[in-house]
Amino acid sequence: MLSVSSLYRSIQTELGAWYDAYHRPLPWRQAVSAYHVLLSEVILQQTRVEQGMGYYHRFIEAFPSVEDLAQASEDEVLLLWQGLGYYSRGRNLRRAAQIIVSDYGGELPRTPEELSRLPGVGPYTRGAILSFAYDLPYPTVDGNVYRVLSRLFALSDPIDTPAGQRVYWALAEALLDRQHPSRHNQGLIELGALVCLPRRPRCGECPVGDYCEARRQGVQEQLPIKQGRTRVLPRYMNYFLVRIEGEGGTRCLIRRRQGRDIWHGLYEYPLIESGEEPLSVEVLSETKDFAQLIACLRSPRFHPVPLATHAHRLSHRQIYASLFLIECAGLTSTPDYQVIAEEEQSSYAFPVLIQRLLDKIR
Ligand code: ADE
C-alpha cells in the first residue's frame, strides 16, 4: 500500500511527464501572459477549444493588450463576442480590463482576493490565472478536473452541489504539485480533455491509470455523480401493525402490494400513504379502506405514537415510513387481508423499508 503522500507524488510525476510529452500546443499556452490566460479562460467557459481558438485569435488581434481591451467600446467587444452567447461575460471582460488598467497599472493582480474583485472572475478563472500565468501554487477545478478527480479517487460526492464541490477543491489543493502548479493544473485539464473522456474514457492510455480507483472498481463511466435539479419529493408511508391477540398466539394482517411500483409483488402491512404530508387525523378518518379494516376488528386500540420511523432516500423521493400499532381482541368479519401468525412473517418478502422498521422495534 502506498501512503497518501507517496500516492500523490506518483500521480504528480506521471501526470507531469505525460503533460510534457502529449499536451496540445494551444495558442494560449504559448505566450503566457496573465491577460492571455484571462481572455482564453473566459472564452473557453462559453465554448469548446476548437471553436474557442478562432475567438481567441480575433480578440488578441483586435485587442493585443489589456489597455486596448479597456479602451474598446462595449459594442466592439460584443461584436467580437457574437455567437458565444451569455453576453454579460463579454461585458465583464471589458470591465475587468478597465479595472486592471485603472487599479493595477495594466498588470493582472497576483492574489486570489484581488482577482476575485474582477467582474466575471470566479474560482476557476482565478486559479487558472494564478497557476497558469504566474505558476503560483493554487488549485483550479473545471469540469474536466471534476471528472478526473472523481474517477481517480472514486468519489461519489456530487459535482453540482456546494458541499460536493468543496470536497473536490480540497482534494485538488492536496494533490497539487507545488513545484509545478501550471503544468500540474493544465495536466489535469488536458487529461480530462484527451483521455479521461466523459464517455468511453481511454483508460489504456492513461498515465495515472494504475492509481485510478474507479478503474480498479470498473465504475469509471458512472462517475462523476451529479445530483441534478430534480426536486426530491417527500412520500409518507404509514404502515399499521394490526396485532390480533388470540388463543393460538398473536396474529397480524398483511397484503400483497398492488400496483406496479418498486415494491410490486412484495407483502406489506395495511398502509395509508398520506401524500406529501405526515399522517393526520383528517387523513385517517377520510381513508375508506382503513375505515373498512377497522370495522373488521374487535375492540381496536389505536396507538397514535409510531412504534418506529425510518427515512429512506430513493433517487427522486425521500420516503418517511412510520409503523403504527393497532391492538385488537379478534376479528368480527374477514378483512381484505391475509391473517398470519406473527412468527410466520419471516416467510414473506417485505420491502426493506418495513424490515428496517421491524429492526427498530426488535
Ligand atoms: N478548457 C478550459 N480551459 C482550458 C485550457 N486552458 N486548456 C484546454 N482546455 C481548456
CATH top level of the domain at 233-361? Answer: Alpha Beta
Question: Structural class from helices and strands?
Answer: alpha+beta
Order of strands in the sheet with most strands: 4-1-7-6
Query: Assembly state here?
Result: single chain
Distance between the termini: 41 Å
Bound molecules: adenine
Q: Write down how many β-strands occur, each being a DSSP E stretch of 2 or more residues.
A: 9
- Overall pLDDT score: 93
Computed over alpha carbons, the radius of gyration is 31 Å
Helix content bin: 40-55%
Strand content: 15-25%
* Low-confidence segments: none
Task: Predict the CATH topology of the domain at 233-361.
Answer: Nucleoside Triphosphate Pyrophosphohydrolase
CATH architecture of the domain at 233-361: Alpha-Beta Complex
The ordered string of helix (H) and strand (E) elements is HHHHHHHHHHHHHEEEEHHEEEEEH
* CATH-level-4 superfamily name of the domain at 233-361: Nucleoside Triphosphate Pyrophosphohydrolase
Specify the number of helices: 16
Net shape: elongated
Describe it for me?
By secondary structure, this protein is an alpha+beta fold. Among the domains are: 32-136, Orthogonal Bundle (Endonuclease III, domain 1); 233-361, Nucleoside Triphosphate Pyrophosphohydrolase (Alpha-Beta Complex), CATH 3.90.79. 45% of the residues lie in helices and 15% in strands. It is built from 16 helices and nine strands. The strands form three sheets. It has a four-stranded mixed β-sheet. A hairpin with a 3-residue loop joins β6 (301-313) and β7. α1 crosses α12 (181-194), α3 (34-44) crosses α4 and α10 crosses α11. The longest helix has 19 residues, at 4-22. It is elongated and about 95 Å long. The mean pLDDT is 93. It binds adenine. Residues 26, 41, 44, 49, 142, 189, 193 line the site of adenine.
